[in-house]
């Protein structure tokens, strides 16, 4: 299925992530990770959104 959208590309990013609300709105398939990820902000602090 094709979802037409606009996005920004961060060539220096350490991972490829997508917004949770976008996934739900567009009914994209999800897979639970065996070990959750702890995302960090650009300044090194933990993201308030919690684990992925």
What do you see in this structure?
With 52 residues, the protein is largely without helices or strands. It has one helix at residues 20-25. Helix content is 12%, strand content 0%. The longest helix is centred in the middle third of the chain and has 6 residues, at 20-25.
Structure at a glance:
With 52 residues, the protein is low in regular secondary structure.
The number of distinct β-strands equals: 0
Summed over residues and divided by their number, the pLDDT gives a mean of 87
Major sheet description: none
| Uncertain regions spanning at least 5 consecutive residues | none
Number of domains: 1
* Shape category: globular
Rg, please? 13 Å
Oligomer: single chain
Helix content: 10-25%
Instruction: Give the amount of beta strand, in percent.
Output: under 5%
User: How far from one another are the termini?
Assistant: 24 Å
Strand-and-helix sequence, N→C?
A: H
Strand-pairing-aware structural class: little secondary structure
With helices defined by DSSP (H or I, 4 residues minimum), what is the helix count? 1
Pick out its properties.
0% strand; little secondary structure; 52 residues
Write the layout of secondary structure elements.
Blueprint lengths: L19 H6 L27
């Amino acid at each position: 299925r094709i979802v037409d959208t606009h996005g920004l590309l961060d060539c220096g990013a350490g991972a490829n992530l997508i917004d949770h609300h976008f996934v739900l709105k567009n009914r994209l398939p999800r897979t639970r990770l065996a070990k959750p990820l702890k995302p960090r902000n650009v300044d090194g602090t933990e993201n308030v959104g919690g684990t992925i």
